[in-house]
Amino acid sequence: MSGITLQWLLSGLISDGMKREGNFREADAAASGKDIMTDAAMSETVLLGVMILAAVLLAICLVLLLIRLLGRRQRHRTARLSSLNAGSITQELPVAEVQAALRPVKVLKDIVYCESEEIIP
Amino acid sequence: MRFMVSASTDAGNVKTANQDSVSVQLLEHDGRQLVFAILCDGMGGLQKGELASASVIHAFRGWCSQRLTVLLQKGLQDGDIRREWTQVITERNEKIKAYGRENGVRLGTTATVLLLTEGRYYVANVGDSRAYELQMQVTQITRDQTVVAREIEMGLLAPEQAETDPRRSVLLQCIGASEAVYPDFFFGTPLGNAVYLLCSDGFRHKITPAELLAYLEPYRMNSPENMRQNEQALIRMVKERNERDNITVATIRTYK
């Protein structure tokens, strides 16, 4: 990006604004590419750096937003079962029972002796 | 902590029917082992004792398959076990009593229930079947619900006298023959390299704690086969000493 473009982007717009508000000294300073408060010339390198930094920050924000949106969508697909969110569906959802059904106790060895084949129901 | 389990039963020298019932399940949940064991001694003098003992075993196995996973998922609490097991026992007491009334028979059973997990044991007891912990010594976990045990507690009878007291098998309560049943509960931390034992009174009447330890000490119980051999050896010894009752024992070996 050339210095002329930068000057137009920053100084020209500021100069016009200043003129409209009747601040002619600041408008002249801006038109000649100087800092409107100090009349010092603005460094193109600094301006370029600021713009690159702004672009990088914007990109980071976009990536974070995208990650968050994707995460929310994923959670929606596989809603985790917990007492907390069970309450928001229905107070009666038997969370422990459902989890127990998903992870049953495994019988490794079973010894049983009862002479009576009949039981009292 | 891991577990090995075994159980043995014998009708004994006199009786033709074995009224004792026993169940031992080695279970696994979330990669951790646990043991659920029940031993019931159907009432010797009562008819159909084996029906009563089998019914209680069946009820507790039903509880295990339906409720244990749920409680494990929530986190086992002493209070939950106490409440739910009391409910099972109370319900069985009512059902067995009703069956007895309808059929004109008297039947009843003791029950000793053990749930052994890595970090805690839970024991319930009604009657005079027992739970023991064996390591360097023999520790009786349960307290007999008998007339003589109560008299010993009250200082009216010496423990030595109790062994020959004719009332030694008279129970204060049993499932199916009592108006209401109040199980005792015992909770504790299990020991590693120990043996937990459930037995009917027929198993323990004729053997001393020293003999129990000599046969069933943890280092003699290295495999389920060894455990069973040692149980059988003790049952043979008890029979040679003219025990007249049914004889039943279940052992659980803990190791790391």
Mean pLDDT of chain B: 93
Return the average pLDDT of chain A rounded to an integer.
Answer: 73
Helix/strand order of chain A, N-terminal first: HHHHHE
Computed structural class of chain A: mainly alpha
The gyration radius over C-alpha positions of chain B equals 17 Å
Q: Give the tally of β-strands of chain A.
A: 1
Strand sequence of the main sheet of chain B, in spatial order? Answer: 1-10-9-6-7
Biggest interface, CB < 8 A: A-B, 24 and 44 residues
Oligomer: heterodimer
Q: Strand fraction band of chain A?
A: 5-15%
Coarse shape of chain A: rod-shaped
Task: Outline the structure in words.
The complex is a heterodimer of chains A (121) and B (256). Chain A is 62% helix and 7% strand. In chain A, helix 1 (3-20) runs antiparallel to helix 2. Chain A is built from 5 helices and 1 strand; from the N terminus they run αααααβ. Chain A is rod-shaped and about 110 Å long. Chain B has 256 residues and is α+β, with helices and mostly antiparallel strands. Chain B is built from 7 helices and 10 strands. In chain B, strands 1-10-9-6-7 form a 5-stranded antiparallel beta sheet. In chain B, strands 2-3-4-5-8 form a 5-stranded antiparallel beta sheet, covered by helices on one side. Chain B starts with a strand and ends with a strand. The A-B interface holds A 96-97, 99-101, 103-121 and B 5-7, 9, 17-30, 33-34, 48, 50-55, 57-58, 61, 64-65, 68-70, 72-74, 95-96, 99, 224, 248, 250.
Features of the shown structure:
heterodimer; A: 121 residues; mainly alpha; 62% helix; disordered N terminus; B: 256 residues; alpha+beta; five-stranded antiparallel β-sheet; 27% strand
Summarize the structure.
The complex is a heterodimer of chains A (121) and B (256). With 121 residues, chain A is mainly alpha-helical. In chain A, 62% of the residues lie in helices and 7% in strands.
Give the SSE layout:
The complex is a heterodimer of chains A (about 120) and B (about 260).
Chain A: H1 3-20, H2 24-31, H3 44-77, H4 83-89, H5 95-102, E1 106-114
Helix pairs in contact in A: 1-2
Chain B: E1 2-10, E2 20-29, E3 32-41, H1 49-74, H2 78-103, E4 111-116, E5 121-126, E6 130-134, E7 138-140, H3 147-153, H4 159-164, E8 184-188, E9 195-199, H5 201-204, H6 209-216, H7 224-240, E10 247-255
Antiparallel strand pairs in B: 1-10, 2-3, 3-4, 4-5, 5-8, 6-7, 6-9, 9-10
Helix pairs in contact in B: 1-2
